[in-house]
């Protein structure tokens, strides 16, 4: 094994749009990694705040890419074109990495790896720990060849953008992404297809921070914004389409209504229907039908442990059949698991960000 294989160049690509108040923490965390060699690339996607001044202040310590606004996929595509690393991490500008994150990823990496994923601690807008993690149950994160499980379960337990590292050979096959289709949530396309191109490594330890704030598109928020629920449903269906397109090019098929095999997707649909039925995006959905589909998907999904299966067996009927006011309370409890105590202790977010 040559030196390049022992110490691969890792690219941390930070995608930013109007996050000047957060981006210093992201850049500083990337520059403070205990691993070398590493390159830090910052893509500003047409920000209208003072992001570009903040990025420019880092000088030659980062490679800056300034472009007009094009959305999430556009920023991914531009950052990847500017990168050289054999392992690539896309870090959202409002998130941060622990100092050892890249070192841990490289240590676990082996030939044939498509992606590695790791746990993120929830922090608030000021960087204070919220006492929760994503994913909520790290023990259910899978390793190795997980293709059969993905097809059977409608997905797998994964993490948002900043908790993933991809092999360049994989991204060479998946990028550039369609910039019109993936203006947001571009990571979901990469995360669902990458396991079909190699092994998955799951590091069940906290190696980064996921910031929860009012402008975060990935979090539902305490008010369970029905618009965000609809976006999540549409993104799940886009993800199904992306996997189906890849499957057709690669000589395999995915099950009919693949997304509906994942209980979380059906929870979003049932929640949207009960909270704001007038604007629900799928006209054929009915509460009872979604309940039955949810119960079936829960008990056939091998990624759910017994406790999760029991919880969802109670949740789906209550969310579907109770009067709307009571159902909304049940929906809230079922869709905001991060508000419950984390199963493993998350490191102090304040310390993580100050150390970075």
What can you see in these coordinates?
- The chain has 2 domains: 3-218 and 345-355, Spore Coat Polysaccharide Biosynthesis Protein SpsA, Chain A (Alpha-Beta Complex); 226-335, no CATH class.
- It is built from 14 helices and 9 strands.
- The protein has helices at 3-6, 20-31, 51-56, 72-82, 101-108, 147-153, 168-174, 186-193, 226-250, 263-275, 287-300, 306-321, 324-335, 349-355; strands at 10-16, 38-45, 63-67, 87-92, 96-97, 113-123, 129-134, 164-167, 199-211.
- Strands 1, 2, 3, 4, 5, 6, 7, 8 and 9 form a 9-stranded mixed β-sheet that branches.
- Helix 10 packs antiparallel against helix 11 and helix 11 (287-300) runs antiparallel to helix 12.
- Mean pLDDT is 91; it is low at 338-349.
Q: What are the key terms here?
A:
356 residues; alpha/beta; Spore Coat Polysaccharide Biosynthesis Protein SpsA, Chain A; 2 domains; 14 helices; 17% strand; globular
Uncertain residue segments: 338-349
Q: Approximately how much beta-strand content do the residues carry?
A: 15-25%
Q: Give the helices and strands as they follow along the chain.
A: HEHEHEHEEHEEHEHHEHHHHHH
The CATH homologous superfamily of the largest domain: Spore Coat Polysaccharide Biosynthesis Protein SpsA, Chain A
Determine the structural class based on helices, strands and strand pairing. Answer: alpha/beta
- Helix tally? 14
Examine the secondary-structure arrangement and name the CATH architecture of the largest domain: Alpha-Beta Complex
The CATH class of the largest domain:
Alpha Beta
Query: What is the fold named in CATH at topology level of the largest domain?
Result: Spore Coat Polysaccharide Biosynthesis Protein SpsA, Chain A
Coarse shape: globular
């Amino acid at each position: 094994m040559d030196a390049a294989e022992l110490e691969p160049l890792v690219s941390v690509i930070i995608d930013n749009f109007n996050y000047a108040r957060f981006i210093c923490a992201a850049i500083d965390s990337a520059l403070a990694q205990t691993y070398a060699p590493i390159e830090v690339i910052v893509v500003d996607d047409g920000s209208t705040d003072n992001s570009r001044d903040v990025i420019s202040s880092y000088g030659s310590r980062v490679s800056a890419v300034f472009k007009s606004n094009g959305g999430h996929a556009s920023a991914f595509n531009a950052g990847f074109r500017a990168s050289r690393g054999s392992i690539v991490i896309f870090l959202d500008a409002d998130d941060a990495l622990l100092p050892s994150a890249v070192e841990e990823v490289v240590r676990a990496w082996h030939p044939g790896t498509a992606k590695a994923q790791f746990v993120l601690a929830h922090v608030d807008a000021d960087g204070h720990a919220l006492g929760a993690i994503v994913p909520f149950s790290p023990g259910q994160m899978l390793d190795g060849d997980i293709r059969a499980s993905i097809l059977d379960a409608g997905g797998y337990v994964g993490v948002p953008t900043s908790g993933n590292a991809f092999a360049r050979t994989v991204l060479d096959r998946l990028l550039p992404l369609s910039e019109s289709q993936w203006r947001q949530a571009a990571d979901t396309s990469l995360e669902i297809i990458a396991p079909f191109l190699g092994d998955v490594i799951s590091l069940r330890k906290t190696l980064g921070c996921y910031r929860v704030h009012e402008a975060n598109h990935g979090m539902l928020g305490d008010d369970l914004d029905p618009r965000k629920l609809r976006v999540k449903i549409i993104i799940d269906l886009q993800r199904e389409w992306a996997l189906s397109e890849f499957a057709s090019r690669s000589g395999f098929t995915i099950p009919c209504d693949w997304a509906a095999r994942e209980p979380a997707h059906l929870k979003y649909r049932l929640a949207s229907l009960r909270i704001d039925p007038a604007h629900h995006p799928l006209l054929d959905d009915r509460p009872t039908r979604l309940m039955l589909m949810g119960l079936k998907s829960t008990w056939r999904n091998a990624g759910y442990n017994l406790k999760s299966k029991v919880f969802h067996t109670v949740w789906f009927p209550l969310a579907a059949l109770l009067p709307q006011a009571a159902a909304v309370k049940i929906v809230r409890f079922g869709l905001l698991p991060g508000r419950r105590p984390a199963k493993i202790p998350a490191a102090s977010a304040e310390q993580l960000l100050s150390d970075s």
